[in-house]
Amino acid sequence: MKKIVKVSGELVDNAYWQFDGDTVTITYQTDRELLAILAVISRQHVVIEDVAAPDNDFQLPGYENLELSTQNMISDAIKNGIGFHVLDETEQIIKLIYGDHVEFIKAGNITRLDSALSHALMENKIVTKDILKTAGIQVPFGYEFHQIEDAFQHFDKLPAEFVVKPKSTNYGIGITIFKETTTQADYEQAVKIAFENDEAIIVETYAHGTEYRFYVQDDAVLAVLERFPANVIGDGVQTIKSLVALKNRDIRRGEHHRTPLEKIKIGEVESLTLSLQGFTESSIPDAGICVFLRENSNVSTGGDSIDRTDEVATFYKTIAVKVAQALDVTITGVDIIISDATRASDYYVIEANQNPMMQMHLFPAVGQSRRVTESLIKLLFPEIS
Ligand SMILES: Nc1ncnc2c1ncn2[C@@H]1O[C@H](COP(=O)(O)OP(=O)(O)O)[C@@H](O)[C@H]1O
Ligand SMILES: [Mg+2]
């Protein structure tokens, strides 16, 4: 089907549209595809007359039910004149077509370029640590346990500050971080929580420093984010609960990865984290005080992100690429805790993610957007660039 719309601005023709000075003729198959094409055009600094602008600059109208990374992948496919089909909305599997070149993408960045084996190696943090250590990359010192009793008996051998985590969960699930001397009972509790989520666990030294996520594609670091655990800043008037509600009103915060950031929840882990700092959700923090609701800095648990791609020293980018090479992967998200990211300093690689979140680089809470979706399209379709 065709639709002609009046526009002001400049547009380069592609398979979806033809520009002729003040109108654009759009070729589309379905109404939702038309909505998406209109949104993509309006994001090329082109004003479409008589058509309302999209509600926000991060979602793709017509495809909001997909994960944000898949929405943006489709958006960049349209921008580059690549055909697309959503094959499975639940599993986020799409097909991209350019001439007779076909590519499949699952969940934003799982492609034929990475093997199921590499993914399995990254999924397993015990195996990842072993491979990285052998490659001469620094990882936190630690132990692995397959039996709960063995873990219990190791308490005396642990460093003062340590982390207990399942060997292969994501999103900070089942992780307990001990930053002060703890008791055997608290340690056993953490071990139980980790074993509830997995059949094996890691107990490793707590790494001090600032946490960064390096997004690696094809032996290059495309984006670096500094990540902070979920937090609110006091104003001396409102409770933590209402500060959280206020922060969650930001349209960029949503649920289930349909938006750039996730809403902060006040659940069991958050209440515990608050109580360790002497707060409850009804406490009123002083003006300017930053209160953390989690220890782990995953964006999935309400964390914040700042783009630091241009600030982080090349030293660490080289390490992130070395991690990808050791695991033999094209795409990975490497978590590194660094003492001073502006120069070579102490660092620890925490893990490598096999399906790293893309939306936090596309839309960081603060700083420049890094279009990792379009970079992947250009890698998969070298003929378009
Ligand atoms: N050894 C460690 N030292 C300090 N913080 C850690 C350590 N291990 C994990 N963390 C914190 O917990 C978060 C989640 O741990 P991670 O191993 O990346 O698991 P997940 O797969 O759930 O993201 C990290 O992003 C970091 O904030
Ligand atoms: Mg992680």
UniProtKB/TrEMBL annotation:
Keywords tagged on the record: ATP-binding, Ligase, Nucleotide-binding
SUPFAM superfamilies, sorted: Glutathione synthetase ATP-binding domain-like (SSF56059)
InterPro entries: ATP-grasp, ATP_grasp_subdomain_1, GshAB_ATP-grasp
Domain ATP-grasp as annotated: residue spans: 129-381
Gene Ontology CC: cytoplasm
GO biological process, one term: SOS response
Protein name: Bifunctional glutamate--cysteine ligase GshA/glutathione synthetase GshB
The species this protein was found in: Pseudolactococcus paracarnosus
